[in-house]
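Lecture notes, structural biology module. Today: joint structure prediction for complexes of three components.
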Amino acid sequence: MDARAPSPSPGPSSSGAEPYAAAAQAPLVQVPVQGAGAGSGSARGCRHHAYSRKQKSLGLLCSNFVALYDREDVESIGLDDAAKRLGVERRRIYDIVNVLESVGILVRRAKNRYTWLGFGGVPAALKELKERALREMAGSPVLPPMEESSTANLSDDEDDEKMGDADADEDAESEKLSQSVDNASDKPEAHSCRLRSDHRKEKSLGLLTQNFVKLFLTMEVETVSLDEAARLLLGEGHAESNMRTKVRRLYDIANVLSSLNLIEKTQQADTRKPAFRWLGQAKRKQENNLTIDLPPSSKAMPSKRAFGTDLTNIDNKRGKLDSAVENKAKLMQGAGNIVKTFEGKLGQGHRTDFVYGPFHPAGAKKQETDDHTVKQERKTIQDWENLAVTFRPQYQNQALNDLFGHYVEAWKSWYRDLTRETTS
DNA sequence: TTATCCCGCCAGTGT
DNA sequence: ACACTGGCGGGATAA
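The predicted structure, tokenised, for the full assembly:
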């Protein structure tokens, strides 16, 4: 029943590999992370630094991960190596890697091995996601060769809990686990063999990430709170406990997507509730001409999260050693904005040079930015938008809006009422 | 208090 | 059998 060990006693930790970062064993990696120096006192020494969850955050870890691998000469990444160099347990690497793969930055090559695609893989992945999302909404599953065994498969989520609620439909998703670019497709006709244990896959971080992103790519509203997202991705049959779990996961995902600058944390327009805004391109794009909601690559760094500490997340176990002098050290954070260009050439043989905006966490090196590059960025983004639009008829987009429209409305009002009621 | 979300147990999967 | 993966949620920080 309980699971988890109530006490922090470091059990045998089955996850073999890197236990608690071999104490002193400083993890190589020393990426400069232009960290305004200002190390200021204690920190490095070792010993009792108060435990600070902020330094162990997935977002920071992701930034470090990217800073560590985002370079031309990197193409293969070993999980063990990553874990060691970043000074974290392998488990955490899985988290990072799963969402990175969902947005096309990585591809799983084999056990313990991933191939680095870089930010250049994002556009294609987003495009893929968006199309798939639209397709799904259009009603017909557009089932490829495979697509589920047969009979009802939809709404397979919600293991326990009543899922036969009145409203019906909504489970629109629950698609396949087909990653955008992966598909090792080794075996000539291997398809249609999987499934069976997909139940687990359906709850995977990777899939959740994709669905979360789809939300941004297809929905109208600019901001989405994690509660809403969870509700959306879960369906009507909300089951408090499921919701809570889902939200926990969304926090994880949001953190890494934030560090990738694909989303940003903000406030919900009316309500003050914290929510997230999409920063990546490939947004909806109604009929009006472009609406790049993308900060002009100026200070896009939200200044939250102190990026640029040191690259490792070693020790500092969760022990509650008092926090005497937790020097917050603002630590620079900006200076990030690295605009990266690349020649389209991935998967879908479309060619257009997509350019990237604010991506890259502060600290990532490799910056070849130039104002003119930024300028060009605008233009290419437009190309991207056009291309995306061309890909499917407008009316479909409208249908989509309608579909989500009523959801959004419902939630909005529901939420309003809820907050109104509980406000006291 | 509520919002976040790290940590690592341990159950599925893979080999 | 062992090694990988990664769902999951307790409960400790942050705000």
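Point to remember: Confidence is low (pLDDT under 50) at residues 1-48, 142-196, 285-310, 319-424 of chain A.
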